[in-house]
TrEMBL record:
The lineage of its organism: Bacteria, Bacillati, Bacillota, Clostridia, Eubacteriales. Pfam families: Guanylate_kin. Residues 6-184 form the Guanylate kinase-like domain. It catalyses: GMP + ATP = GDP + ADP. It comes from Candidatus Scatavimonas merdigallinarum. This is Guanylate kinase. The gene is gmk.
Length: 208
C-alpha cells in the first residue's frame, strides 16, 4: 500500500474542556500521532516545561515569527499570543504521522482556510456548569480571570458548528475512542484512497 500523508487535525474547545488530557491519551493510543507544540507568550503554569507543553517566548520574538511567515496560524487569547510553528508540522505529515494542533477557535479558522484537507474537531463539555467547575477547580487563577475565560468559552462554543466534528468530553475513554474513530474514517475516504485503488488495478493487470 502506498504511503499516505498524515492527517492534520485541528482540536479546539473552550478552556477547561479537557483538551490537554484528551491529547495525552491520544498520544498513548497510537505511535503515529504527534502533537504540534505551539509557541505562546503566556507565562508557564506549574509543571510545564519549555518545548514540551509550549515554546514560551516574548511578544517581540513572537511578532518576528509572524513577520517571517514561520507560523501556520496564530491568535491572541486573553492577552497572550498562541501560534503553530510550520516546520515541524510539515515534516511529520510528510512522514505519514497525524499531527494534532491543539489550538483556539481563532487559530482553527486560519488553519481551515489555509489547509482545506485538515480535519477539525471541537471538544465540548457535558454542560457549561461542568466547564465552570473545572476552571475554578484548577485553583490557578483568580475569579476575575475565570470569568473572562467563561465569557470566552461562550463565544467559542457558538462557533462549534464551523467544525467537521463535535465530540463531548464526558467519559474520557469514550471521548478518545470517538476521536480515534474519526481519524480512521477520514483515512478511508475515497479521495484519500485513490492511489491505493490505482495500485490494486495495476496489480490486476499483472495476474490476468
Amino acid at each position: 500500500m502506498p504511503k499516505q500523508k498524515g492527517l492534520l487535525v485541528v482540536l479546539s474547545g473552550p478552556s477547561g474542556a479537557g483538551k490537554g488530557t484528551v491529547v495525552k491519551e491520544l498520544l498513548k493510543a497510537s505511535d503515529k500521532i504527534r502533537l504540534s507544540v505551539s509557541a505562546t507568550t503566556r507565562n508557564p503554569r506549574v509543571g510545564e516545561k519549555n518545548g514540551r507543553e509550549y515554546f514560551f517566548t516574548t511578544q517581540k520574538d513572537f511578532e518576528t515569527m509572524i513577520d517571517r511567515g514561520e507560523v501556520l496560524e496564530y491568535a491572541c487569547y486573553c492577552g497572550n499570543y498562541y501560534g503553530t510553528p510550520k516546520k515541524y508540522v510539515d515534516e511529520q505529515l510528510a512522514c505519514g504521522n497525524d499531527v494534532i494542533l491543539e489550538i483556539e477557535v481563532q487559530g482553527g479558522g486560519q488553519v481551515r482556510e489555509k489547509c482545506p484537507d485538515a480535519v477539525s474537531v471541537f471538544l465540548i463539555p457535558k454542560s457549561f456548569a461542568v466547564l465552570a467547575d473545572r476552571l475554578r477547580g484548577r485553583g490557578t487563577e483568580d475569579e476575575q480571570t475565570v470569568r473572562r475565560r467563561l465569557d470566552a468559552a461562550l463565544q467559542e462554543i457558538r462557533q462549534a458548528e464551523d467544525y467537521d466534528y463535535v465530540v463531548i468530553n464526558d467519559v474520557l475513554d469514550d471521548c478518545v475512542q470517538d476521536i480515534l474513530c474519526i481519524l480512521r474514517s477520514e483515512k478511508n475516504k475515497t479521495v484519500k484512497m485513490k492511489n491505493f485503488i490505482k495500485e490494486v488495478l495495476a496489480d490486476a493487470q499483472t495476474i490476468r
